[in-house]
Design a protein that fits this description.
Elements: H1 12-17, E1 25-29, E2 34-35, H2 40-50, E3 55-59, H3 67-70, E4 78-82, H4 88-92, H5 117-128, E5 134-136, H6 138-142, E6 148-150, E7 155-157, H7 160-163, E8 168-170, H8 175-186, E9 200-204, H9 206-211, E10 218-219, H10 223-228, H11 230-242, E11 252-255, E12 260-263, H12 272-279, E13 286-287, H13 298-301, E14 304-306, E15 308-309, E16 329-330, H14 333-344, E17 352-353, E18 355-357, E19 367-368, H15 371-374, E20 389-390, H16 394-404, E21 411-412, H17 420-424, H18 430-438, E22 442-448, H19 452-458, H20 463-477, E23 485-492, H21 499-511, E24 519-521, H22 529-536, H23 551-561, H24 569-578
Parallel strand pairs: 1-3, 1-4, 4-5, 5-8, 10-11, 14-18, 17-21, 22-23, 23-24
Antiparallel strand pairs: 2-13, 6-7, 8-9, 9-12, 11-12, 15-16, 19-20
Helix pairs in contact: 2-8, 11-22, 14-16, 21-23, 23-24
The structure holds iron/sulfur cluster.
Length: 614
């Protein structure tokens, strides 16, 4: 195999220039091809190339045009298919189920990704090349690997593996899995034999399942049961949730009408040297030269660096635990420094590193003693309250200092969110470092809510922790020439949240005079704990009922978060009346909405250190 090219080929001509007559693997993606490590197709393509395989890329093929799928010919080993960096339904529709008019992963933002892109692409490929193995992966396949509630159809769908003509599904980050698949297929193993690869799911015939069911497997309620019975859905969810650990997780099987979907345990975390090696592959950090229009998603990440993977926060509305897992895998600071030095040599680099982070910026290098030997606890959530969690941010501070010192680097920002309970638990001066060097005017934080019931269901720290963080942030502002602000993110419509809870949040926003233009209305995306609650009305771990706001109640909740917006006055008034809170309607100091139906525009508390309305 030739050494890594400046860009992975997107045509036979580009392949021919590299001496390739037939590609080993063709990757098909719903994103434009951007050769940057934060784009999954580029990452997987470079890793496969590094392992000695030639890889061609078909980006954003039309759903119907067969020629789009034939441009690179027939691959020698397999097609690797993904919807791109995002689930196609999340990407194509707003939370209100309206079709979006742009796609930031597409040239010029012009949408090209079909709905259910993974299934569409797999079907086209299978029609044209029926004997070539098809491997699906990426976030869409990963988070739809079991029967799941689909918000866009408001029903339970089968595992995507049962719906798509695919041989294997890769879940999680995928590097180990794709290389093993490629090596074993190249060695002549038939794809139907590849049933023991961690981080993959495969299908088994129902008859075989009945006669030769593998040992040590956790069987969860099947599609027929979970699509008809909500408690069964919740039980199935809790069962597979607990097995998503690479150390203690067992294989999980879920029967479907025509097949049985079996998930092997997750892939083992990458060692630091492996992670360093992958992120130091020669990515050009640019879109493929064939594109005439810019790809909007590149700009915010072009000069950002991934420092680690995984998140042990366990926010209920986030499915990252099912994708990257809870165990933190961190790169070495030397590797990150080398990556930034490479960036400084690029003509487009203006001295600004936009982000050094991962799913949660301040989990870099944090660890627990038992992750390696026993995995992450099944029944316990990781938090600073656990004495086994090492919460020192010293290594992060050292890393940031090193990067700040690189010639050509003017600013290093932290754009990823930070977990404020972890920052509070640290005494290495991390928050001061962040304020002094790594934010401009704002620090984004995500308390999401303030009432104990809702933060408990969301698995977020409570209001008192957020208030302590605000106080610590405020202390750091003293003596600063230029004031900085916290930009808090809150969410409406989450399972467990009632109108009185939202009124309490609105009062908190009022009392702290917060800026709430960034409204998040809960959307049930595949495979999160919250989506399971949304569909079933049950907490999957306790089977206790959970209130689920829907329809007009959900709209009222959203309006309450933006009670100052005149267009929300009717809904806010309705919500306050329904909760018996007429005391907040009128012209009094504390009122959220004026008595004549106009929103109260009072500005209350003085300087709170939080982002205030301008
Ligand atoms: S011991 Fe504590 S930090 Fe470690 S996995 Fe369990 S809960 Fe998480």
């Amino acid at each position: 195999m030739t050494r890594q090219p400046p860009f992975l080929p997107m045509s036979l001509q580009e392949g021919a220039k590299l001496g390739i007559r037939q590609f080993d693997i063709t990757l098909i993606t719903g994103d434009a091809y951007v050769d940057h490590p934060s784009f999954g197709t580029a990452l997987i393509g470079r890793v496969l190339w590094d392992a000695g395989f030639s890889v061609g890329i078909i980006a954003q093929p039309s759903a119907k045009n067969a020629e789009d799928y034939q441009v690179l010919g027939r691959p020698r080993l397999f097609f690797g298919i993904s919807s791109g960096n995002v689930d196609s339904m999340v990407n194509n529709y707003t939370p209100n189920l309206k079709r979006r008019s742009n796609d930031v992963y597409s040239p010029g933002g012009i949408p090209k990704r079909p709905d259910r892109a993974t299934i569409v692409y797999a079907n086209r490929v299978h029609e044209l090349f029926p004997d070539v193995p098809v491997v699906i992966g990426g976030i869409e396949a990963s988070l739809r690997r079991f029967a799941h509630y689909d918000y866009w159809q408001d029903r339970v769908r089968q595992s995507i593996l049962a719906d798509a003509p695919a041989d294997l599904l890769v879940f999680g980050m995928g590097e180990r899995q794709v290389v093993e698949i490629a090596r074993r297929l190249a060695a002549g193993e038939p794809v139907r034999n590849l049933r023991d690869i961690r981080g993959t799911s495969y299908k088994m015939e129902v008859a075989e399942w009945r006669s030769a069911r593998p040992a040590g497997i956790v069987e969860i309620p099947g599609f027929a049961e979970v699509s008809a019975d909500k408690p069964a859905y919740a039980r199935a969810f809790a069962l597979h949730y607990h097995e998503q650990d690479p150390v203690r997780g067992k294989p999980v099987a879920q029967p479907h009408p025509k097949t049985v979907v079996i998930q092997n345990p997750p892939a083992c975390p990458l060692m630091q040297e492996e992670l360093d090696h992958i992120y130091e592959l020669p990515f050009s950090r640019c879109s493929h030269p064939s594109y005439k229009l810019p790809i909007p998603a590149l700009e915010p990440v072009q000069f950002s660096v991934t420092s680690h993977r995984g998140c042990f926060g366990g926010c209920s509305f986030c499915a990252l635990t099912h994708h990257q897992g809870r165990i933190i895998q961190s790169r070495s600071s030397d590797s990150i420094v080398r990556e930034v030095i490479r960036m400084t040599k690029m003509p487009a680099f203006k001295g600004i590193v936009h982000d050094i982070g991962g799913p949660t910026a301040n989990m870099y290098s944090l660890s627990c003693d038992q992750w390696e030997s026993r995995g992450a606890c099944a029944e316990k959530r990781c938090s600073p309250a656990c004495k086994n969690l090492r919460t020192s941010h010293e290594e992060q501070c050292r890393l940031l200092e090193q990067v700040r010192g690189i010639p050509g680097v003017k600013h290093v920002f932290i754009g990823s969110g930070i977990r404020y309970d972890l920052a509070l638990a640290d005494d290495s001066g991390y928050l001061g470092t962040v304020c002094d060097h790594h934010i401009s005017g704002h620090l984004k934080v995500a308390p999401e809510h303030i009432t104990p019931k809702v933060t408990g269901i969301m698995n977020k720290p409570g209001q008192e922790v957020f208030d302590r963080f605000c106080a610590a942030f405020e202390t750091l502002q003293q003596g600063k020439k230029k004031r900085q602000y916290l930009l808090p993110y809150f969410m409406s419509g989450h399972p467990g949240c009632t109108i009185p809870d939202m009124i309490a949040l609105a009062e908190y926003i009022r009392d702290h005079n917060l800026y709430t233009e960034q409204v998040q209305d809960f959307t049930p995306t595949p495979m999160s704990v919250s989506s399971c609650m949304y569909y079933t009305g049950l907490n999957p771990f306790t089977l206790e009922p959970v209130h689920v706001p829907r329809g007009s109640e959900k709209k009222i909740q959203r309006a309450l978060m933006q009670y100052r917006d005149p267009k929300n006055r009717g809904l806010v008034t309705e919500g306050l009346r329904s909760a018996g809170r007429e005391d907040l309607i009128g012209n009094g100091k504390q009122c959220l909405v004026a008595g004549d139906g106009r929103n109260s525009s009072r500005s209350l508390h003085k300087n709170s250190g939080l982002k205030r309305r301008g």
